[in-house]
């Protein structure tokens, strides 16, 4: 029997406040749940010297980073448990299969296509038809190249690759960093029969090498120190233990651990230009902590009663900015922190139940203006808007709606059926915020539009008498869209299709290309996703 691993650290519900519901404990889908699984653990078996932590505690349940109902967007494709995901844009390195299998050793690679490499100038190379910058060193940032969309080059998928084809129960989302050569590295985990971490490096077009980590990884975050050819990882072992690791010359060394009981997720570790490491996270009491490591830890507490997904960014002087959802005044609110300053409210969620807690933070412009991408509840408490917010002054924020669910064209089976044997056709979209990136003076928001199409049939019970809709068929398709400040929904560009997730981790390289990794659940069941990587840029 194989077990889907849960941990006390990652399965405790968020704090209950005096609300109609119990905060995120009612609707969060972000943590590990325990259940038996038929998933095979062959393929990428860890050989860690640390014993994996296994628990059967349930509560905050992650379904591979999915919200539980995978959806699809504007390009129609039938999705089943054996569906194939392919990129349809020009200049892609390849299309990838959601059902490809990997070998049973500790290394996972995908098929390499034929490509050529030629030097185009002193700062970039062309590989497989894709121009890639030669360096992503500290001095190369902030990014000065134009980003796709908003009057610049059209957005397209430049790479679409499988990092790991193993379909496994996973947690939250993978972490990504760029090395000094602007190539991505990815930290991901498998949560079956314990927690097992893997570190994957892209070694060529469609070719990734994945090796087990020596530490237990339930979730983790990556930060690159490209000038020193070093990568740092802050990892959560699934039992409140969080440790800092350094990877140099192919070897992992533990640098330190956080004091006390804590949670760490992807996108919560940043390497500063002065060499210190900055971490934004929550402790076991769900209080937001900001910690700096420069040989020793220094810690400040920001706010209590928070949700687990803290986001952090640094300005040019290494001053930290953080965001986190927290409960106050009988609702969830997104808060902003500039330590040691007091918290500011970016926007209320508009609900006491949070379902799409993933959000992202980026700093742009000479004054490092904070921008935030989030999902906010509509007044009906069912649908969501994709919202872009930016700070206009002390405790002052401007928000704009990039896209909203429940359009007039949506067809749903909302009203209860009057009798058995009725058919109802549905066709609607759901939206998820994925990632936010900023160049020197540009901001790009990536969100997912998933389209659901299918049929429901009515069924009735006699005691007590009631009728309900039962789904019998569904097709899902999706569009990964790129938006920018001031843009209208019809202007947003479709950069990728057949993406099925509700969150992603992103990095921007010095050519203005967005590197994205996520757990992709192409079968829509909310279990056993594979690990996928995209590079999005100008066509």
From TrEMBL:
Query: Per UniProt, which keywords does this protein have?
Result: Signal
Q: Which segments carry the region annotation Disordered? A: 33-130
| Keyword Signal assigned | yes
**Top-rank lineage group of the source organism:** Bacteria
Q: What is this protein called?
A: Uncharacterized protein
Provide the species name.
Nannocystis bainbridge
Where is the sequence biased in composition, kind Low complexity?
Answer: 33-129
Its signal peptide is 1-20
